[in-house]
Design brief:
Layout (H helix, E strand, L loop, with lengths): L1 E6 L19 H16 L6 E4 L3 H14 L7 E2 L9 H8 L6 E6 L3 H9 L14 E9 L2 E9 L1 H7 L2
Helix pairs in contact: 1-2, 1-5
């Protein structure tokens, strides 16, 4: 299975007065995510499934990816396994039952970095994905979860690669 781990774009902070769960993407965050969407389209990403954290900024990020890839927004699937405090095993419990070749996962730090580390067998994070960053991993086995990092991209690198 090919997995893309996408960290949400820039969100309103620190003056946001409502719950953290409801923080939306900023104008800049939406622009960054449009660039990521262009990159995903350029590399011919063709997900069977897009999973997203239920937090607003992640859902908005996933929706932008859907639009870029022609993936139906109504097929987005929310999962708490992509929230920042989730354990990597929670996501792999969910992924192991899928009949999918390619999945995009939209989430938060430190979860995305912990999942990448978990897949390559590291006890501590080996990445520090910034907002609108992307990691690509090829999963070899689900029991135990093991895979190979194919690429790690900052939002700046993605922006440059789409020009």
């Amino acid at each position: 299975m090919d997995l893309y781990f996408l960290r949400h774009g820039e969100a309103d902070w620190p003056d946001w007065k409502k719950s953290d769960d409801e923080r939306p993407l900023t104008k800049r965050g939406k622009k960054e995510m449009n660039e990521v969407g262009k990159f995903l389209k350029r590399v011919k990403a063709d997900p069977d499934l897009i999973l997203t954290s239920p937090l607003l900024r992640a859902k908005q990020t996933a929706e932008i990816a859907c639009e870029a890839l022609g993936y139906p927004v109504k097929k987005l699937r929310q999962t708490v396994a992509l929230k920042s405090e989730a354990k990597p095993t929670e996501l792999f419990d969910e992924l192991s039952g899928l009949k999918a070749e390619e999945v995009i996962c939209v989430g938060h730090a430190p979860n995305v970095d912990n999942v990448v580390a978990f897949v390559i067998g590291s006890r501590s994070p080996v990445t520090a994905l910034k907002k609108a960053g992307l990691a690509s991993i090829e999963i070899e086995t689900f029991s135990p979860p093991r895979g190979t990092i194919v690429g790690i991209y900052s939002s700046k690198a993605l922006r440059l690669l789409t020009k």
